[in-house]
Amino acid sequence: MPTQNRRAFIAGAAALTAAPLLSAKSGDHSVPKLVHHVFFWLKNPDSESDRNALLAGLKTLGEIPSVRGIHVGVPASTEKREVVDNSFHASEILYFDDVAGQDAYQVHPIHKAFVENHSHLWDKVIVYDAVSV
Predict the structure, then answer these.
(1) Helix 48-60 and helix 109-118: axis angle, to 10°?
(2) Is 84 helix (H, G, I), strand (E, B) or coil?
(3) What does the pLDDT read at residue 12?
(4) 3-class secondary structure, 63
(5) What is the spatial order of strands in the sheet that 34-42 belongs to?
(6) d(CA 115, CA 96)
């Protein structure tokens, strides 16, 4: 591919990739407005089966109708810095359109079943809820 065509291709690809990010930052109302981030510490942190059971349970929460997006994860192997807390064993981020959607999630049968079936696995849970400004 000639250099000029390659540069045009790269510039076009970069623009297409950045477009959704730019619209989200400029107030696109289709972006969920409430983030529900939950961190879990396992009772048995060395148990791979407990961790896998918790992760599988967390993934079911994405089936709740008011959930607009979900991310389930474990601590990343990023640089160790004073401001980074990677002491948790699993986390979930759920996205909602508004507080009403998050309220509906809290009482939904899938969420209630998750708590009932998996709460014996964790020792500690911390929740951070934030709304877009």
Answers:
(1) 170
(2) coil
(3) 53
(4) helix
(5) 69-73, 90-96, 34-42, 122-131
(6) 19
3-state secondary structure of 127: strand
Instruction: State the pTM of this model.
Output: 0.75
If phi > 0 it is left, if psi is from -120 to 50 it is alpha, else beta; for residue 9 that is alpha
Helices (H), 1-133: 3-25, 48-60, 99-107, 109-118
Averaged pLDDT in 10-residue chunks for the chain of 133 residues = 53 46 46 93 97 98 97 92 92 96 98 98 97 92
Q: From CA 43, how far away is CA 88, in angstroms rounded?
A: 11
Give residue 32's pLDDT.
80
- Residue 9, number of CB atoms within 10 A of its CB: 11
Q: Please report the sign of the dihedral spanned by the C-alpha atoms of residue 46, residue 48, residue 50, residue 51.
A: positive
